[in-house]
Write a structure and sequence with these properties.
The protein is an alpha+beta fold. The chain has 13 helices and 21 strands.
Length: 423
Amino acid sequence: MAFQKAIVSLVFLGFLCGCGIPKPSPVIEVEELYPKKFEEVWKHVVKHSLTKLQDNKEEKFKCFSSLLTGGLASCLKDPYAKYFTKTEWDAYQSEEGSSYVGVGLVLVERGSRTSISSVMRDTPARKSKSFRRGDLIEKIDGVSVLGESLSDVVDKIHGLNGTNVAIQVRRDDKLMSPVVLRRAEIVESAIEHSPISKDIYYIKISEFNRTFFGDFFTAFASAVADEGGEIMHCKPLRSVVIDLRNNLGGFLISVKLASYLFALHPDDLVVTLKTNSGEDITSSGNIIEQVRKINPLFEIPAGIFASAKMVILVNDSTASAAEIMAALLREWLGVPIVGVRTYGKGSVQDENELSDGDGIRLTTAEYFVGNRQVKINKVGMNPDYWVDNNDFIEGENDSGSQSIFDLRRDLQLRKAIEILRLK
């Protein structure tokens, strides 16, 4: 214990003088350094984090030291954990809506690097024709971001509307020239949909946001309704391609509610969450009850879209809630999946504001999907039809068409159409 106290004294004197060997100082208990703040964070971590910690002085000191040097992510070995100052928390919360100020790059963490998952349509990044999915972010405004977290890289790219940011990427081991973009308000569209032909409809899901259930119902109803707007429960009018590529997830409750539209058996399991205190199992019956509680007048029957012919598209940036949807529809209804192995993010993060306005994000559960308890985390899902889109680079060489799909170059979409026409 004396050694621990000495270390704490050294750390804080080093901060004060900036250099040299500190002089001996009075012994300071860990709890005295920042008692209220640290105690609040510690209790939250012990109670909710998926990483089990013992509530004792040794564990507390170890975590406190990690907080000083590497943050919560280092302490918990949790890449998604983050502590936010009030300023950071306020900025983060302001970006949780349907719009933000940035350049239109969707980023994902791949190992220790930040990679471009997709380039959003009608954004500064897309219009520049300078970025591809898979590019690695190397520098921002001339400063290397190697080793920085995904959230820190995102913070550097976002900023004030109308200001410039220079982004340099590495592509196929080649460092590309920096590209200067003017930041703009980016309006995110979670769902886009359009007919491909008279018999096939296309629904692109970019994220599972707070309004997803209603928006998805509207999109799917547009696909399967007849000319009079009636939904053909037993024999939908069209087959449907559900595109979950480059969908990094979103709210777990949104995909749970969406499962209502395909649920045929109340006893079917939707998802099982395993936390540090046990299991939380959600069945179709639970979801049906939840939907009815949200709106007692909701008259749409469960499983209304279950008879539709469907194919799902995925890629290596299909993650989290998107992986849940793909796994459920394959298990429950035998929906085939086309693409490549998915990302493999099978964990749940909770975000909470602390008493002084700071914030904290923690991984609190790992989920397993369906009756078969399919594991997603760190393994992903293999498709039924493995199709690479090597020649299809989203955001490059656009023909000028406003279509939300590209039948000429998108080999995965073409395979999905082929499967539907053979069904």
